[in-house]
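Researcher: I'd like a candidate sequence for this fold, 311 residues long. If you have to choose between options at a position, lean toward the conservative one.
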């Protein structure tokens, strides 16, 4: 059944949680197919059996047997089995057995009309304080991160809409939103979770393949909902570490004149991932890191950063 579904546009599943969800999907589609065929045949039968030529006068009594009741009951029983025996256990294991924080990469995702903001805790593993009053779109501080806060200093905020992940590692996404309800959906990872204002909801998955895919918003959230898409980039472990470290060095240098080379290389990393060349991407990420570190050394030599501090 799954093969058939994939032929008509059902995406491949690239997370460790995909097979269980796909099996429920298959069972639901099998039931729907049986129902479709059953009702279809019944419909054609009634067209012929009760045609006007043979039944010129309407019969006010109608059908007196109970076959339709039995078939309704059979469908209900099948659906109950589907829910209780298949869907509930799969869903429970998806949402209840959250992996340990030590055994997972914890990343915050904050919905916003009409972008996805991604927030990494950086080297210290602690998320910096975010305050609604500090939100400043002009200054590109979309999540209101308080950079004065000690824990916030090493936090990494990649370009809006770009979620970077390591392959074969548990990912916990702590999901929230700064305005209306959104729904965070990565179809190829079989992930879909609503983002509700005022609360932080964890959702988790384990990517099993490197590459780049789309993130969608699965909840009508306003007039530009259709363009609220993002990208999930799954790197090799080494490539991921190099990419994140590069972002952090670029943030420290904070001067495009110095970091331009490194930033150009980072773009190539994403192109390589998109064309499914994870090892090229890893090489490029390491190159970007060395370029960023060289830029940092150059800046220190020129004394640029001291000037900046004095201002
Ligand atoms: Cu949305």
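Model: Candidate sequence:
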């Amino acid at each position: 059944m799954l093969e058939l579904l994939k032929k008509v546009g059902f995406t491949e599943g690239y997370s460790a949680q995909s097979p269980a969800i796909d099996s429920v999907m298959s069972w639901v589609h099998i039931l729907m197919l049986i129902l479709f065929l059953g009702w279809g045949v019944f419909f054609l039968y009634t067209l012929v059996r009760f045609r006007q030529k043979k039944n010129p006068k309407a019969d006010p009594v109608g059908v007196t047997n109970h076959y339709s009741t039995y078939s309704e009951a059979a469908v209900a029983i099948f659906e109950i089995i589907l829910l209780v025996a298949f869907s509930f256990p799969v869903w429970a294991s998806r949402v209840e057995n959250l992996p340990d924080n030590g055994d997972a990469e914890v990343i915050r995702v904050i919905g916003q009309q009409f972008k996805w903001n991604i927030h990494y805790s950086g080297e210290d593993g602690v998320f910096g304080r975010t305050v609604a009053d500090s939100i400043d779109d002009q200054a590109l501080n979309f999540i209101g991160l308080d950079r004065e806060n000690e824990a916030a200093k090493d936090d990494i905020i990649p370009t809006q809409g770009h979620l970077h992940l390591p392959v074969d590692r548990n990912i916990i996404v702590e999901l929230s939103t700064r305005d209306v309800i959104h729904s965070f959906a990565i179809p190829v990872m079989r992930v879909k979770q609503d983002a509700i204002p005022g609360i932080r909801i964890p959702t988790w998955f384990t990517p099993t393949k490197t590459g780049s895919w789309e993130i969608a918003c699965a909840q009508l959230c306003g007039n530009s909902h259709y363009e609220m898409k993002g990208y999930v980039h799954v790197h090799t472990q080494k490539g991921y570490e190099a990419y994140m470290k590069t972002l952090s060095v670029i943030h420290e240098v904070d001067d495009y004149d110095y970091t331009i080379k490194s930033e150009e290389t980072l773009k190539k990393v994403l192109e390589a991932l998109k064309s499914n060349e994870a090892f090229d991407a890893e090489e490029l990420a390491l190159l970007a890191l060395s370029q960023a570190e060289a830029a940092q050394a150059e800046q220190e030599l020129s004394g640029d950063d001291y000037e900046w501090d004095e201002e």
